[in-house]
Fold this protein.
Amino acid sequence: MTLSPASPARQPDRPGLRAVLVAVLAGALTLAGVGALGWVTSADQRTAMSATNVRPYALPEGGWAQGATRVWSAQVPAGAEVVVAGDYLVAVERSASTGTSAALTGYRVDASGATQAWTATADLTAGTVGEAPFQVWDSTTLVHGTTLIDLATGTVSTAPWSAADRPVVLEDRVVTCPDSESCYGWAPGSSAPVWTAKVPSGHRELESMTQAPTVYHRDGARYALVGAHAAVNIDTGEAIAFTMPALQGWTIAAAADGWAIASWDLSQEYWHIYSYGIKGGEATEDYPGTTPWVANETPQYGPHPRTRGQFKDLWADGDLSTIIGWGYHPQDSDCLDRVRAVDGPTIEVPTISAGASADVIAQTSMSCATWVTMTPEHTVMTVRLKDRLTDNAFAFMHDTSTGEAVTFEGTDVMAGDQLSMVTESLAVGYDVDAGTLNGYVPAG
């Protein structure tokens, strides 16, 4: 059976299980680059050597393991939502008295401080469903549902799609899936989609996404996964066709030199892996797989895109050399309660209590950490929550060798304050009650 893209099969009904299974295959850790190639053909080797994975947020550098040094402070509106978008920060003020309108103040942010750049008013009624409500498009535009905000000028405009279409930003493309059959690709400045793709259950697939989307650069082309069951060229809209048997449960993962499809039966006792080249088509091989971990563990991979050979080493032979950390979650949940690097202690993920302002949507009654990021040397770990304003937001940072939390003076996430990465060597913290913005650099 040839699927273009593959049609979703029946999935397990247990809550949170699908997200856990996707994370197990693809990895909840996110880093860029390419590593050891293993045994691949010359064409596959060329693909793997140039492979990169691009994600919409900054990763911390190793110097944060020595702590965080506050280098500047600035006053911004108190009780706001603070959105970090590239070199810009936007303070969003809204309350019940203003209806759907929000007051926005934009700042340029760098290691020397925050400088106000503009003010604006925007309708922020609805953000992106099931994802961080604010996304950065083409490094120039902040997207919130159908509202577009120019980061340099504060100019507000309306997008040509509906907020219900579930817009997802992928570098300089926005993908929307308004119904169960079709998805559309949008380019900056376009009033009509630049492509249309047939993606069965596309809307549901996008709504199921809980982690930041990745763009896979392979052989000069750019691909993304639309949910768990479709791989699409984001420049052309071409969906990769995979020839595969009818499967009960399955998901796609991107390899440095192609694709891997992991399938399982409803009991989770039988796994089978199908391996494909970058163009899809017939499987290059398939083999039975076993999971060398227990049900409540999620492996953290990195720091490089893995080849199909490395997938096989892991799933067929139990080779754990590509795993650099582990996340642990309660049964039938995708919320992590413990994390650790392979060479470090186990770190308990705290529960965050609600802050003083009920209007701040970044504050949660309890934490649900769904993914972590690590430095390439896996010396520093950031813990990120399912509920977040942008994909640069994080809740906690740890030295993985000791398990010690990095302290950000003047910012208390446990009291409802906010932290975000600006670059690998610059973070900002926001004291919600005092309206104080703090800039931090690595102490090491």
Summary: The radius of gyration is 21 Å. Residues 1-17, 28-40, 354-366 have pLDDT under 50 and may be disordered.
